[in-house]
Each structure stands twice: as C-alpha cells, then as structure tokens.
Amino acid sequence: MEVIRLPSKMQSWALDQRAHGFTLAVVPTMGYLHEGHRSLMRIARRRAGRVIVTIFVNPTQFGPNEDFERYPRDWERDRAICEAEGVDVVFAPDVGDMYAPDHSVWVEETRLSRGLCGAYRPGHFRGVATVVLKLFHLTQPHVAVFGEKDAQQLRIIRRMVRDLNLPIEIVPGPTVREPDGLAMSSRNAYLSPDERRQAAGLWKALQAVQARFAQGERRAAALIETVRMELARTAPSAVPQYIELVDDETLEPIEQIRDRPALLALAVFLGTTRLIDHIVLSP
User: Fold this and answer.
1) Stated pTM of the model
2) 278 in active site
C-alpha cells in the first residue's frame, strides 16, 4: 500500500493507472476509521481494480463553533485498517496543499442543502461539495463510494455529479450499526458511557416509526411524534435539533407520505455530541 501526501502526485498516479486500463474507486473519509468505513472499502474493491481511500479532515465543512480541532484522529490505526482491507493508495494531504491561502472558488448546491443539517450548519455542504470535487479531480475515480448514513450528503453529491456532468458513478454503502443499533460514526467516540447507552434510542425511535408506517400511518405529524415519544422514553437526555419527514428525492418537507418514498431524518445532541440518523419509508 502506498501513502501519497501531495495532490500533484496523487493526480499523476491516478492518471497513470487509468492510462494502463485500471478502474479506480475512491472512498472519501475524514479518518478515525471504523467498520462502516471498512464496508465502503470492500464495496470499492468489488467495483474496481484500484482502491483509493482519502483521509482528510476538511476544515471548510466545520463551522466556527464546531469540532474541527478536536475531531478524533488516529493516523497509525487508520493506515493499518486500510492496509488490512487491501487498499492500494491512501491519499492524506495537508490542509495547506489542498487550499491555497487565497482560496476563493467554491462549489455550492442550492436546493437539497437548504433544510435538514444544512439549515443548522451554514456553509457545511459548500465545504463538503468543494472538497469532494477537489478529491474527484485528484483521484480521477470511475466509482466513488459514500455511506448512506449521511443521507443528505449522499444526495447532494449525487446532484453535484449530475449537474456538473462528472463521469463518476456514485455507489451508496448501507449504514453499519453497532449491535444495539447505533449508527457507526467517528463522533461516537465523544460519548460518555451513559450517553452511549442512550444513543441507542435513536435507532429504537426509528424502528418505532417503521412499525407505525407498516401499520398504515402516513401522516408526518404522527410519525414525528412517534420519534419524540420514543426518544423521551429511551434517551431522556437527548435534545433534538430537528426531526423531519421530507421527500426522499427533493428533500422538501411533506405532510403525508403518498406515492413517493420519504426520508425521516433526525439530528440530536447528547451532551455536546451531535448524532444523525434516518430511515427511508417507501409506500
């Protein structure tokens, strides 16, 4: 496995591999890798002859009061995981090599990013779209694998690829969960033991919604209230930032599920840790 730090070297390597007929897949990450990331690497390996994992904690997607400085990092562990998964290249650039001091060009999606997390994290998805496009240019992938856990991000990346005519296939990877249902996330490391126990309540709340939907409930207000009641029961310390039912494609709020899939998404705080999760409800 090769570790590449310089963007110019990464791009040269990728172009050379393409010239030799290899299919390239990239798995963009911010490091502190876990089983969810491993699952994405395995999908990439099945889809391509060469697998690239990027490890870059991107400062432009963090707000001024967010956790960029304390975001968990463990380079040696990340490197070992990538090597164990048979990754060909880890691209781990420095911030100064990714963004010039006078950087002034941004990629901004203006519809799908308005609600959900985008409403509470101004500039976040602008930073995500910008860095992902830069990583695409540098790694030259035929395939890019993203986790379904970050539902809004996945839909925004797909929209960017569509609208900018990028010749890249976006492949989703299913959310990987702990035995108690908590979606795996690097930020789970922030949770205290009691917060970690309560965090399982997010999945319990979504399962309760799934059950009500299966019984025929289609009203947004009723499904959202189910989440609130279940969180109050299983995660009493959780403070919801949002619980919303939106169209799965447009991400516009809906009052009732009719003939199109809907996304029920939530973000909650347990202490200072922000957790997100979702389910898709298909009629």
Assistant:
1) 0.97
2) no
